[in-house]
Amino acid sequence: MIEAKINSKGGILLGYNVVVDGPAERLIRVVTHIHQDHLTGLSYNLKRSLYIIATPTTLDMLEILGYKIPKEKRLPLKYKKSVTVDKETLTLLKARHIAGSAQVLIEGKEFRVGYTGDFKMPGTTPMKNLDVLVIDATYGSPLRDRKWTDWEAVNSLVRIIEDRKSRGPVWIYGFNGKLQEIMVELRARGIKDTFVADSLTIKLMKVASKFYGINVGNLLPLSEFVKDEPAIVFTRSSLFKTFRKRSGTHIKLTGREFRDVVVQLSENVFNVSFSDHATFKEVIEYIMEARPKKVIVDGYRGRDAYLTAKYIQRRLGIEAVVEP
Predict the structure, then answer these.
(1) pLDDT digits (tens, 9 = 90+) for 180-226
(2) Cα–Cα 20 to 30 A to 156, which of 80, 110, 136, 170?
(3) CA distances (Å), 195 to each of 64, 157, 191, 235, 272, in order?
(4) What is the full DSSP assignment across 140-167?
């Protein structure tokens, strides 16, 4: 039986031919989604790998982010569709994280291994009958568990918007992918206010709209936004300091807020605890349903990977290690 591995640069090595979300000298590079910690070394693999595989949504978003993937190397793969390379079959399965996110399953003659990528539950179907499962554990400690659901977080966000929009624009800050998901959620909950966004967020939303099957309507470019005009403004977390002093209410979407679903930081600044990662409880639920022979906890991206592995081994009786 071949074992999966995680190398020192965060590459998830599956089978003999595939590396996922990090660099390695492999025929195939898979990208599970567009977050930066999963794009490490992509330029390296653009030069050395035969194919770059991802869902059509992720590949389109990578182009928007400036990754120029040659047509002959670009291999879009829809969920549950497979490709076989050198007697190994690769299948992408849906992961609930952001638009286009995928789990990766590799099946060979004598092994079956998989990687969850980033995920949350419900909405991610566990892979079963695996020899080795590589799992994300961004929140790998019970101390980092949130005591509220995503739906409660979104409903709290709606309440802040309804309460504050008469006072001026409402600014919402988040990561790529999370912003697009929240736009869809707000429209689904009847928020009809004008949506404003920076140019990158708008381009990514056009791709995400096809994925979600929901048109959020025309987005006003941030460059055309009048300073005090009533609207909901969506922009990236990295720009919070740039716009913090603008009038209105400023809301940061963060999975690292564990005190409460909403925490007011000042008169006009709030944290809303909304995450696209599984809680510790959800990680354990996934493993209990999957029942793999062995678990590798991603220690390259996870903060509490050793605690997670120890819990899996002691409480579930499944061999568990941390890599790298």
Answers:
(1) 999 999 999 999 999 999 999 999 999 999 999 999 998 999 999 98
(2) 136
(3) 20, 15, 10, 11, 19
(4) -SGGG--SS-HHHHHHHHHHHHHHHGGG
Both tokens assigned to 222 = 């941030």
| Phi-psi region at 66: left, alpha or beta (left = phi > 0; alpha = psi -120 to 50) | left
Burial status of residue 266 (CB atoms within 10 A of its CB: 0-12, 13-18, 19 or more): exposed
Question: Could you read off the pLDDT of 3-28 as tens digits, one per residue?
Answer: 799 999 999 999 999 999 999 999 99
* CB crowding 153-186: b at 16 or more within 10 Å, else e: bbebbeebbeebbeebbbbbbbbbbbbbbbbbbb
d(CA 85, CA 259): 47
Residue 5: exposed, middle, or buried by beta-carbon count in 10 A (0-12, 13-18, 19+)?
middle
Q: How high is the pLDDT of residue 230?
A: 87
**Measured between alpha carbons, how far is 116 from 125 in angstroms, rounded to an integer?**
10
The domains of the chain, with CATH numbers, are 5-143+278-323 (3.60.15.10), 150-273 (3.40.50.12650)
Q: Which residues of 81-100 are buried (b: 16+ CB within 10 A; e: fewer)?
A: eeeebeebebbbbbbbbbbb
- 312 closest CA partner among 194, 293, 324, 252: 293
**Residues whose CB falls within 8 Å of the CB of residue 268, separated by 6 or more in sequence, listed in order:** 248, 249, 250
Place of tokens 């990754």: 67
With a CB cutoff of 8 Å and minimum separation 6, the contacts of 209 are: 184, 215, 216
d(CA 2, CA 115): 14
Distance in angstroms (rounded) separating the CA atoms of residues 239 and 96? 26
Structure tokens at 320: 């568990």
